[in-house]
Every structure is written in structure tokens, then in C-alpha cells.
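Data deposition worksheet. Section B asks for the primary sequence of the deposited chain exactly as it was used as input, without tags or linkers unless they were present during the calculation. Section C holds the resulting structure in C-alpha cell form. Section D is free text for depositor observations; keep each observation to a single sentence. Incomplete worksheets are returned to the depositor.
Section A, Depositor: J.P.
Section B:
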Amino acid sequence: MGTQLPPDLHAGPLAPASAAIAVLWLLGLVLLDRAGHGLPWREGGDAPDSRPEPRGHSRGKKEKAATDQGVGSGRAALIFASAALATLVAGVAIEHTGEEFFARQGLSGVLFGATVPATATSLPEISTGLTSTRLGDYQLAVSDIFGGNSFLPVLFLPAALISASRSSRRRTTPTSTSPLSA
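Section C:
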């Protein structure tokens, strides 16, 4: 919808749609803060009968299971570091092979960027949702879904600022230094 607005309506380097997203996000934060202080229908932060076990039971279950299996902090840190390195290597490999695959199919990199990374970035929410549901912590699953979706629009503002500064630098640099172009 922001593309339908006139191009001279920009607020500095920001397009009106980017500014509107930022303003609406800030307004949402203010409303959430007010709602956190008390709503007339709120019953201690939880919907009635929304969880079969008390708040924080998942953490206790996971810590007990890890202790029973003999997983200490050092081993957990090593597993985490190994998984992070494997994720980095796999991400680079997927980026290179995906770009090559889509190029061979005659498709643009934009299509690759809109599908594969979008799927990959949703995997943590899927994992958290499945794990919390398996543990019976449904509020964690719902909070993770809403929390992730409420944070992602914030990333549009820095992206718009960065792309605007890069495009303005491109417009100010000469495109040709040939003596014939004068």
C-alpha cells in the first residue's frame, strides 16, 4: 500500500510506509505496557484454566532431565558452540547452493531470498512451539508466536535507513568517467 503514495511524500530518508510501521509499532508497545499494568478482565496474568501446571514448570522439568542425564554446563556450552558452528557452515552452504540452483533454473535471487531464508528463520518459532506444547506450556508457545511477529517489523526501519543511504550514495557518484560522456 505504501507504493501507492506519491514519491515526494518521504520523511527524510524514510518512505511513508516505513515511518508508519515504526509509529504503529511504538504505539503497540505503549498499549502493551498499559495493558501490563492491569486490565479489567485480567486474572493474575493468566487466562482461567489456561495451564494445567504452574508457571515455570517447564524450566524445572528440563533442568531435572538434564541433571539426570549428566549434562553439565560445560558440556551444554560445547554442544551449543558446535551447533552454532554447524548452523553457520550450513547457512553459507545453503546460500551458495541455493543461489546456484535458482540461477540454473532461470529464477532470480529475490525468489530464493523470499522462500529459503524465510523458512529457515521460522524454524526457531516452530521448534519452540512444538517443545513448549509437548511440555504442556501453551502460554509459552503463544507468547513466542506473538513475540516474534511483533519484533520483525522493527527490522524494516533500519533496513529502510540503510538502503536509503546506499541508494543516495549511488545517485551522487558519477556512473561514467569516460571523456566521451561529458
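Section D:
Residues 178-182 have pLDDT under 50 and may be disordered.
The radius of gyration is 24 Å.
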